[in-house]
Write a structure and sequence with these properties.
The chain has 446 residues and is an alpha/beta fold. It has 14 helices and 17 strands. The protein folds into 2 domains: 8-56 and 337-441, Aspartate Aminotransferase, domain 1 (Alpha-Beta Complex); 70-334, Type I PLP-dependent aspartate aminotransferase-like (Major domain) (Aspartate Aminotransferase, domain 2). The protein binds pyridoxal-5'-phosphate.
Length: 446
């Protein structure tokens, strides 16, 4: 075993020899992967000491950046030195109790019960299991342009290109279209589109038989597929159809929960809309430690007081992760992190509009809070990639290289470029980042 201090060469060698990458084939993914050594604030530093702004908070998860707040670090350290691990399935602990209490405080009063898996995928597994067991019904309706996680249940629920890997899947999932369709329009204007869309959804519910549908599960703002923002009428319409046909509404807040779009939870941006079950992860613990959460409306929580939910994993409600999340939420409230997001939303929108006017490689931009995306287009004005199995155009690779050269680490998965910096970014830092992206886009223009 190599006991000397590892330099970048050792790290790359072991990665090459032994590390398996996941969504794509290992070799191309490894070659495209970037090394990082440390982080500070919104910045990452590589092994050469070069500095990068993290412009997508990794996978839109490290909402508080790379400098762990001292209060969070202190609580984690204390937990590690007093009770570093306890199986959450059979024990009562202060971290779990405190986290449930603070979530109760920051969510609508109808949502009263919480449990804590590890990942967003697991949280969605729980939501699906709970909806089926509570209603005694099996079907779950989800949308085509969605991502709900990489484990088999949520991957079957997923509609985006990754669902190919879960095709042998789990039974009982039915897909419906999104308001944002590529090949056709639902109507001549927004109002007509929404009303046709909701009529289509009702027709789907009736065709599937409402008595067989446990839940409709949607991302509050569709994230991975490109920040597709649901107009309020769509979310209100889905809520109304759920109420009419006695179907649960599950909102997947894994990406937008914990402040990303300008409220603590994304559904709070839709006046008065409360889901029956919601899931969150990523920002819940600032991603300093793995943790996700599921919130239940009171009658669902009460049902499981006397009926088994029938779910578990060893690391649920891990005490170190739970105390971390509790302190993260406390920090967010004390520092008004959500206020910072609200304050910077107009800067995001202005700068995105400016880039749209300036660069013909961009077609459309969408943003809410600190969550935005551009569609990238080729010389023909069409999306630069039609399908994720298309080869990535050379220009896009040059653009990615230029972004890195300009000190921007961003998640560019064509045809979409996400913009989602840590929520603690300052206005000056945000403007600096946009200036660097602006320059890099010249490489992509025609
Ligand atoms: N749901 C949504 C909306 C997501 O964006 C993600 C991850 O990106 C997940 C679920 C899955 O979460 P995880 O990767 O933590 O399992």
């Amino acid at each position: 075993h190599n006991v000397k201090e590892w330099d970048l060469k050792d790290i790359v060698k072991s990665t090459e020899d032994h590390v398996v990458f996941t969504w794509g084939a290992t070799d191309p993914m490894r070659k495209a992967a970037k090394d990082f050594k440390r982080g500070e604030g919104i910045y990452l530093f590589d092994y050469q000491g070069r500095k990068y702004i993290d412009f997508t908070s990794q996978a839109i998860n490290n909402n508080l950046g790379y400098s762990i707040p001292p209060s969070v670090l202190e609580a984690i350290t204390k937990q590690l030195t007093t009770l570093p691990q306890l199986y959450g399935g059979l024990t009562i602990t202060e971290p779990k109790a405190k986290l449930a209490q603070i979530l109760n405080d920051v969510t609508p009063k109808d949502i009263t019960g919480f449990l804590f898996p590890c990942t967003g995928s697991e949280a969605n597994e729980v939501a699906i299991r709970a909806a089926r067991r509570f209603t005694g019904k099996q079907k779950i309706l989800t949308r085509y342009k969605s991502y709900h996680g990489g484990t088999t249940g949520p991957l079957t629920a997923t509609g985006d290109f990754r669902r190919q890997f879960g095709e042998s899947g789990v039974s009982g999932f039915v897909k419906f279209f999104d308001l944002q369709a590529f090949q056709f329009q639902w109507g001549q204007n927004q109002q007509q589109s929404v009303s046709t869309y909701l009529a289509y959804l009702e027709e789907t519910i009736l065709s599937e038989n409402p008595n067989s549908i446990a839940a409709i599960m949607v991302e509050t703002v569709t994230g991975s597929a490109g920040v597709l923002i649901n107009p309020p009428e769509v979310i209100q319409g889905i809520r109304a159809l759920c109420d009419k046909y006695n179907i649960l509404m599950i909102m997947d807040e894994v990406m937008v929960g914990l402040g990303r779009i300008g409220e603590m939870f994304g559904f709070q941006t839709y006046d008065g809309i409360v889901p029956d079950i919601f899931t969150c992860a990523k920002g819940l613990s600032g991603s300093f430690l793995p943790l996700s959460g599921v919130g239940f409306r009171k009658d669902i929580q009460d049902y499981f007081r006397t009926n088994a939910l029938g779910w578990g994993t060893t690391y649920q409600a891990h005490p170190v992760s739970c105390i971390c999340a509790y302190e993260v939420i406390k920090y967010m409230v004390e520092k008004d992190v959500v206020g910072n997001v609200k304050k910077l939303e107009p800067v995001m929108i202005n700068r995105m509009e400016e880039l749209l006017k300036k660069h013909n490689s961009l077609r459309q931009g969408r943003a809410r809070g600190l969550f935005g995306a551009f569609d990238l287009v080729g010389a023909d004005g069409q999306l630069i990639m039609k399908s994720y199995s298309d080869p990535v155009p050379e220009k896009v690779n040059k653009f990615k290289a230029k972004l890195l050269e300009n000190g921007i680490q961003a998640w560019v998965r064509p045809p979409v470029m996400h913009i989602a910096p840590p929520l603690i970014i300052t206005e000056a830092e945000l403007n600096d980042a946009f200036n660097r992206v602006d320059d890099a886009l010249n490489v992509l223009d025609h």
